[in-house]
Structures are given as structure tokens and as C-alpha cells.
């Protein structure tokens, strides 16, 4: 049986096909991805995004919440705020404000390999960065400035550990002399 005509040809891209229509229904059904746990727990799937955020006292559009005043236009305040909305779930904003007021943990850490590398360089070469750059353990071929930067990062992240390390090196140098 002969081959069907046109099957071996490369398919051409159809510019006239509306691909948005194909994916529109799938996008409507998908629930929004909510990162904040407080909002996720207070979310009501039967309401729209705007209604949910309004119930929590949050704004859907920051440009509408805090409009930028135009130059030359002076607003007259009559004492009443137009469009004052009722916040049904104020605990969401309160929990978010409390969480934001907590002090942030310092998560600055260096890899064990980098710490060992810096300690080796300081132990063998002291403050001579040019000599460190020529060392055989300088696998990544760091320049003297790059090595100095790594040592400064180590000093800033672990100041106590660095002081103890330098103090432990001083007796060794005195024994040598």
C-alpha cells in the first residue's frame, strides 16, 4: 500500500489559530496560588479574589488603594471617607503585621568547603594574598582580590570563630621564631 500524501512533510505553524481559547477554560478553574498561610486559611473558594481580599482588609489593586495625587489638584476632605468597606476578617491583617514585626533570623552561612579553604590560606600564608593566589590548593584560580573578598566574607559571617582561629595561630608563630 502506498504512503499517504503529505505525511512526510514538516507541519507549518498556523498563525490564524487562536490558542488562547484552548487554555482559557483551564485557567478559570485553577485556584490562585497563595503563598501566605494566613490568607490561605481565611480564603473562601465560593467568593471572587476581590471579595476575599476586601473581607480581609487587603487591596486587590495597590494603585487604587493609595492613589497618587495629581499635581495642581487639591482634594477637599468633607470628613467622610467614600467607599469605606467593612473588614470581616481583621485577624488576617493582624497576624501578618505581627509576623512582619518579628526580628528576622540571620541565615548567612558559608559552605564547609569555603571555610576550610579560607582557614588553610590564612594558616599557611597569613595576609599575603599574592602568595595565596599561587598556592596549589587554589583550585578555582582565584585572584588575590577574590581571595581577600572571601576572607572578608568569612570575617563578617563568623567574627567570633575568626578571632578564635587567629588567636590559636599566634602561639604557633611564636614557637617557630
TrEMBL record:
Subcellular location: Nucleus, Nucleolus
GO BP field: ribosomal large subunit biogenesis
Pfam families (alphabetical): Nop16
GO CC annotations on file: nucleolus
Main subcellular location: nucleus
Keywords attached to this entry: Nucleus
Family membership noted in the UniProt record: Belongs to the NOP16 family.
Protein name from the UniProt record: Nucleolar protein 16
Organism taxonomic ancestry: Eukaryota, Metazoa, Chordata, Craniata, Vertebrata
Amino acid at each position: 500500500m502506498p504512503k499517504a500524501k503529505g505525511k512526510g512533510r514538516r507541519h507549518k505553524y498556523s498563525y490564524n489559530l487562536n490558542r488562547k481559547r484552548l487554555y482559557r477554560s483551564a485557567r478559570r478553574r485553577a485556584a490562585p496560588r497563595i503563598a501566605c498561610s494566613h490568607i490561605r486559611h481565611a480564603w473562601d473558594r465560593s467568593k471572587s479574589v476581590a471579595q476575599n481580599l476586601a473581607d480581609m482588609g487587603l487591596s486587590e489593586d495597590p494603585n487604587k488603594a493609595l492613589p497618587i495625587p495629581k499635581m495642581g489638584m487639591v482634594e477637599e476632605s468633607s470628613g467622610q471617607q467614600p467607599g469605606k468597606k467593612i473588614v470581616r476578617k481583621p485577624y488576617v491583617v493582624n497576624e501578618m503585621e505581627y509576623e512582619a514585626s518579628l526580628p528576622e533570623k540571620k541565615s548567612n552561612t558559608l559552605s564547609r568547603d569555603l571555610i576550610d579553604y579560607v582557614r588553610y590560606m590564612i594558616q599557611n600564608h597569613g595576609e599575603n594574598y599574592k602568595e595565596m593566589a599561587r598556592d596549589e590548593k587554589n583550585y578555582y584560580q582565584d585572584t588575590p582580590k577574590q581571595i581577600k573578598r572571601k576572607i572578608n566574607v568569612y570575617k563578617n559571617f563568623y567574627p567570633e570563630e575568626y578571632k578564635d582561629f587567629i588567636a590559636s595561630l599566634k602561639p604557633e608563630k611564636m614557637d617557630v621564631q
